[in-house]
User: Fold these one by one.
Assistant:
Number 1:
Amino acid sequence: MPLVIYKMDDQLIVAKDACPHRGVPLSLGKNDGQGVVCRYHGLRFGSEGKCNRIPAHPQHKISDRFHLRTYASVEKYGLIWCSLTAAQNAEPTIPRMPFWDDAEYQQLVCPKTNIQRFAGRQIEGFMM
C-alpha cells in the first residue's frame, strides 16, 4: 500500500497515500507548514492526519470522514518504521540494534529504493 509521510512539528505522520475526498495521492501535494495539502482540491491534513482545511467550505465543521487513516510510526536508526496493524499511538515493533551508537561499528542506511517487498527482505538484501 502506498504511504505518505510528513511531519508536523515533532510529530511524524504516516498515512495511506490517498486523499479521502477523491483519492488523489497526497504525495503529489506539498507541506505548507500546517500540513500536507492535496494537489486536487486543496484539502489540508495536519496533526494526527486530521483535515484542518477545506478551501471550498471554510466555515463548515470538518467531518471525521475527511481525516486520514494513520499508522503507528517511529524514526530510528536513520529510517522511518511503521506498522500497518498497530494502533496509531503505539510504537511499532522494530529490530533492536544494540551497537548502532557504538563508534566501533559502521552504521549503514539502505539507499532509497522501492522494490515492492517486505522491509525485512530489503534490509537483508543490503546487508549481504
Note: Residues 1-94 form a domain with the Rieske Iron-sulfur Protein fold (CATH 2.102.10.10).
Number 2:
Amino acid sequence: MYIIVAGGGKVGHYLTRALIKAGHEVVLVEKDSGRASYLQEELGDVVIRGDACEVRTMRELGMERADIVIAITGDDEDNLVICQMAKRLFNAPRTIARVNNPQNEDIFHRLGIDNTVSSTKIIFNLIEQQIESDEVIPLAPLMRGNIEIVEVDLGPDSPVVGKTIPNVHLPKDALIITIVRDGHAILPNIDVELKQGDTVIALVNADKEAELREVFA
C-alpha cells in the first residue's frame, strides 16, 4: 500500500519506520525544517519537508494514488483539513486522524473522517481500568479536555536526570504515565531512574502545564 503520514513528531517517526519495515510504500511529510532534516537523516528520502494542509504539497506527494492518508500532527484543525482534502479532492479510500482533544472526535466523524485516534481517550480508558480513581488526578476533566498530555524530552542538563520517580517533585494533580527509552515504553514504578534522552509522558491540569515543564527543564 501507498501510505502518506502527515506529522513528523515521535508518533509519525515511529509509525513511518514500522510501516517501512512492514513493506509499505510510505511518505512522511513534516513542515518544520529542522525536524524534517533530522527525520531525513534517520529515515532517508521517504521524508518530505512541506505543509500537508496545502493542495500543492498534496499533489507533489501523489495523494491521488494514496491508499491511506494518516494525519497525526499536534493540531486537530490541521489533521481535519488534511483528511478532508484527501477525501474530497483526491478521493483517498481511507483517512485516519489523530484527535488531541476528545471533544473533537464526534466532529471528525460527522465530517467524513474514516477513523480517529484519541490518545487522551486511550489513556483515560487505561487509567479507568487499571488504577483506582482516588490514586490519580480526577478522570472527568481528561475527557472534557481540561487535562493536558505533556511530552518532555530529558536533556543533559535536566535536573531530574538520575532521580527515581518518587524523588521528582511534580505539581499537584500531575501524573507520570510512562517513560519512553530507546523506543520502548517503561512503566514509571518507584525504582525507575530517569536518564538523559528519556521522553517523559505525563498528565497535568492545563493551568499547570508550564509548571510541570519547569520540573524537567
Note: The mean pLDDT is 83.
Number 3:
Amino acid sequence: MAARVARPALAALARDARRRAKARAPRAASSSSPATTLSVVSWNVNGLRSLLKKAPRALDELARRTDADVLVLQETKLGADGRGAVDGEGEAPKFLREYGTREYATSTARKGYSGTAMFIRDGDWAKMKRVEATRLSAGGFDDEGRVLTAELDSCFVVNAYVPNSGADLKRLPERVEVWERAIREHVRALESRGKAVIYCGDLNVAHEEIDLWGRHAENSKSAGFTPEERAAMTRLLEECDLVDTFRAHRPDARAFTYWSYRAGAREKNRGWRLDYILASRRLADSIVDAYALPDVLGSDHCPVGLRVALP
C-alpha cells in the first residue's frame, strides 16, 4: 500500500502553489524574449451539474486557488445542449465569469455520458484563434464528446477524456487500436504546425507502478493498468515527444488522482494516478510547477495542474 500523504504536507503543497501563482515568476524561459507563465488545471468532475449543485462555488474556488488561465473538465455528463444545461441560454455565466471563452463537447451517442469542457480566462495573453470540439476519426468515440482543442498564440491545449476499457475490458481493443492511434495522430499534426502541445485530462491509465497504490499483479487485469494500456501510454510519450509534467517535476512522488467510492479507498489513500498534463518535450525545462490537489473534494477524481513558462 502507498504511504498515506499527511494533511500538513497537502496544505504545504497548496500554500506553495498559491505563492507560485501570485509570483507568476517562471523558473526558466526558453528564449531571451519575455515569457508568459501559463497555468493549466484539469479535473474529472464526474458530473458537472451534480458538482455545481453540491458546491456552486467549487470551480471558482479552484480557479482562484490555482490562478488557472485554462481550466479543463472531463466527464461533464451534459446533454446535447451543453452550455445551456449549466449556464442558461443567453444568460450571464453562473460560474467562472472571468472565463469568457467557454466550450463544451457533449455525447450524442448516449445522454448524460462522457463530455468535456474548456474555460479560458479573459486577457491579452490568451490571443486565441479557435477552440473546437475535435473529431479524431476514432469510430464511435467521436460521438462521445471526448476531445476539445484550443489554439493559443504560444501553444495548443488538448483536453481529453480517454475511454475507459470497461470492467470486463470489452472496449480495450478499440481503445488501444483505434483511440490511441487517433490521438497520437492528432497530437503529431498539431506539433507539425510549429507550436508546443499541452495534452491533458483523464487519460484513464496508471502508467507506472508508482501510479497505483498496490496489488499490481491483480490490477494488471483491470481497466487502467493492463499491459496494453500502459504500453500505449509509453508509445504516446515517445512518438509524440511528450513528457509527463508531474513525473518530470516530482519523479519520486506517490500522488494519486482517483479513488473508488468503495471500501473507503480515498480515506485509505488506495488510489490511482489517472489524470495527467503532458507537454511537448521542448517545454520540459520551463516547468514551474506540476501538482495534484487531493484535498479538493466533489468528485472521485481530484484536480491536477501545471504552471509552465511559454516564450
Note: The radius of gyration is 18 Å.
Number 4:
Amino acid sequence: MFTTLAVAARDRKRLAEISGVAARFGLEAVLLRLGLGGGEAHADGPEPLSRRTRQALEALGPTFVKLGQILSTRSDLLPADWIAEFEQLQSAGPTLDFETLRPEVEAALGGPPEQVFARFDAAPLAAASIAQVHRAALRDGTEVVVKIRRPGVRPRVEADLRLIAELARRAEQSSAEIARYRPRALIAQLTEAMLDELDFTTEGRNVDRFAADFARNRDVVIPAVYWRHTTDSVLVQDYLDGVPPVDAARLRAAGVDPHRLARVGAEAVLDMVLVNGRFHADPHPGNLRGLPGDRVGLLDFGMVGAVTPRRRAELISFVQSLAAGDGARMAEVLADWTEGTDVSRASLTAGAERLIARHGQGAVDLPAIVADLMGLMRQERVAAPPDLVLILKALVTIEGVLSRVDPDFDLVKTMKGAWSRALFSSRSPEALRNRLIGALLDLSAASDDLPRLIRAASRRLTADPVVNAASDKETARSIVSAGRWIAASIVLAGALVAGALLLR
C-alpha cells in the first residue's frame, strides 16, 4: 500500500505498522483518494469511513491523534461528519507503572525522586499519550506536579513526522485539487506542535513567557517552573489546586463566582490574542482552573500560538465590519485570508454579504460565524491560514467553556475592551520607537528606489509619441523634481522623529 514511498531504512518498520493499521480499518479508499494506494479499494464496511479513520488514528498513537485533533479544527477542509468524529480524539493514554519511568526520571533529576523531593507520589495523577503526571512536594513544602515523558515516544513521533511529511508531499504532487488545500503547510503545523510538546524545556519557556505577560494581572495565575529539576523529558511546576470550569454550581461551592470567572477568563484570552501576541492554543476545561478570589489558573503550555500585528488588525477589522454591516471591508479581510489563491473578488464580496446577512444583527454567535466562515472557505476550495484557524479555534473553545458556567457570557462584547488595550499597548514609547525605526529603514531603502522609478516614468512620458510635446517634457521634469523633494522630505521627517524618540 505504501510500498512506493521513498523512506529511510530506519522508518520501514514503522511504515509497515502504519500500513497494517490502515488495512485493518479499510482505509484503502482514503489512500487512493490521496493518490497513495495501490490496487483497488475494498468495499466499505458497516462503519462510516470517517469513523474508521478516527479509529485508525487512535490506534496509530500520539502523532496521528494530534493530526486528527488539528483536522478537527479544519471545517474549511472537512465536512461536518468528519469534524464530529475527529473531535472525539483525546490525548489520554494508559497509565504506566512508575518503575517503567524511573530510569528517565532519575537521569533527569540526578537521583531517585524520593530523595530529590520531600514527597513523591508513585501513583499517577493523570496520563496522556506523550507524558504522565505525578504529584510531589519540594523540600520547602511547595506542592508541585512532575510531568514525565513516556520512554521511547520521541523516536516514534519523529519517524511518524517524516512519513507523514512524505505522504503530504506525494499527495500534493499527485493532485492539483489536493494541492489547493496546502497539505504540506498543515503537516508543518503538526510537526512544530509535536516537536514542541516533546521538549519540555520549550513548554517551560512558554510558561515563563506567559508569566511575564501576566505579571501585573493578579487575576491570572501561571504556575512557576522549577528549572533546577526540569529537562527536555521532565517538567516540574506548581500544582494549582482549583476547580475546572465545567459546572457553575461546583464553582460556587468552591467559593468562586462563575460570572466574574467568565469575565476574567475571557479578558485573559483576548489579551493573549489582541495585546500580547501569543496565546494558549488549547484552553479547554482540563487546562483551566477556577481559583479562590475568582482567579483563573492556566495549565499545559505545550501548544502555543502566535499572533502577528497584521493578523490582529484583520481580526478586529472582521468583527467591526460584521457589526457595521460593511461588506466591502469584510471582503478586503477575506481577500487577505485567501491571498495567493484564485478566488475571485466577486465571490468574496458575495460571501461577505451572506455572513453579514446571517450574523450582522442581534446577538453574535461566534461558533456559528466561524462555522459559516470555514464553510465559505470550503465552498471556494481553499485552505484558511493555519495560524488563523488556531486563533479562531482558541476563541471558540474559550467561549464554549465560559458559556457553560455563565450562560449570559458574550465574548464579542468583552472583545471591545480588549481592542482599547491593544490600541494603547501598540502606542507605548517602546512600541512607537520600534515602529519608527522600522519605518525609517523602509523609507531609507525606498529613497534609493524612488528617484529611479520616477526617472523611469519620465522616460516613458518623454518616449511616448502621444505625449512627446515640450509641455509634456516639462511636466515630466517637474514630476522628477517633485519626487526627489518628496523622497528627501520623507526621509528627513522620519529621521527627525525617530531621532527625537531615541534621544528621549
Note: Residues 466-470 have pLDDT under 50 and may be disordered.
